[in-house]
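Good morning,

Both structures are done.
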Amino acid sequence: MKHREVVVVVDAEGWLRRSLEPGLEDDGLEVARAATAIGALSACAAQDPLCVVVDLELSDHDGLWLAAALRDGNGPTSSVPIVLLAERPDATLCAQAIAAGVDVVLDRRGAIAELRTYVRALVAMSRRVRAEASRRAAKADARARSEAPERPASGRSGTQRKVTARSPGHAVREEVLPSARPDPRAEPTEDSPTRRHVWGK
């Protein structure tokens, strides 16, 4: 089953999702909307998005707070690309946004086509990063398997004793001793040097 590729859009009024959704769905992406910063955290934890687009003005916390919260820790959202939309963003806001973990700051009055272009570029970057992470994990796993010590072949360990015959006051005892047989799982034969018969009381 194909892995779902999601872009989370966070805005209080829904206009951002309505503007982005048609073009992104044409690219094979699913758009999930959250109306609050807290809701966005839950959506991102559940959806593992390739990109997050957030409006600065939200009803509970602003977009800067959300960006910092997503970057906090080592979870899957700590590296997700973030686009922040703001009204006439100045140098101060841009600096604050970068410090909070935002990747791109755009003027919300700008063309929606420009926003889609940035989102597509960031989604492509996320795909490359995830593909590289998967390759590295596969190589590390293969290396660990190749360097792991081999387990000893299963077989008889120690001396196993079996009484095969009895006579008054005596018993013949057959001992099977461990040895370096070509196949440890092979049953010793009567002529095998690892099998001997011991007479005793």
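Second structure follows.
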Amino acid sequence: MRPVLRLFERLRGQRPQPAPPQQRQEGPLDLLDPAFVRDPYPAYARLRDVDPIHRTKSGGFILTRHADIVAALAHPALGNAPSRHAVVHARNRGRHVSADVAANILPFLDKPEHVRPRRLIASAFRAHLRAYPLDAEAIARDLLAPWLQAGAMEAIAISASRFRSRRFRASWACRPPIATG
């Protein structure tokens, strides 16, 4: 993990350095802590001020400043391609089917390999949306009907319900397939 820490230090460049250790977050942040889950924003604000590139309890990193995030996303060492030590690395294509699959799907591709497939998929998806527009108004009416009939509703419960996502998925499942030819 030291190479990652050095990389993040380089990404910081000439930007303001984090606060001295005595002002930093007490130990690594636990993303599963009930207090953090309930309200993460005070922790994020503190990290942004005193430890903008923070190592979490699980070993990952939280970047809280826009400039650091932009630099990390643009850095070639922080891409999506599997590590050279991973079973799914492209060098293992002949030995593991999973490596062959990973070498051909967008989540594991970095520039420039992902540009052409992403453009093709986006083009087909846009054409599909033009041909079969989603009737968001009808979906909203269907979702709100029970609460409107009852005369009361809880907006958060409605928007966060599993029913909402199931209904959206169902509306897409009924659409004709995207043409690939």
